[in-house]
Write a structure and sequence with these properties.
mainly alpha
């Protein structure tokens, strides 16, 4: 444990941010899993309805600095590709 006051504060802040980031990452993963499960079932209408919601969750993670912009673009592109392959 650090001795300096500012170092102690950094430890506390880092712990809070780590928990927040973990929650956001979990939300992204769950949204993607839900979308992919719908695609696997072959329900195109439900998948088309879930796609914007999933993209929104991914964009929110980018806005909060949890995911990088290009990582999010790659994830959304892959999901769009799976949605288009259903046709």
């Amino acid at each position: 444990m650090p001795n300096i006051k500012s170092a102690k504060k950094r430890v506390l802040v880092t712990e809070k941010k780590t928990i927040r980031n973990r929650v956001i990452k979990t939300q992204v993963k769950n949204a993607i899993k839900k979308f992919l499960a719908t695609v696997a079932e072959g329900d195109k209408e439900a998948a088309a309805a879930l796609f914007p919601q999933t993209c929104s969750v991914i964009d929110g993670a980018v806005a909060k600095g949890v995911l990088k912009k290009n990582t999010a673009a790659n994830k959304k592109s892959g999901l769009a590709k799976k949605l288009n392959e259903m046709a």
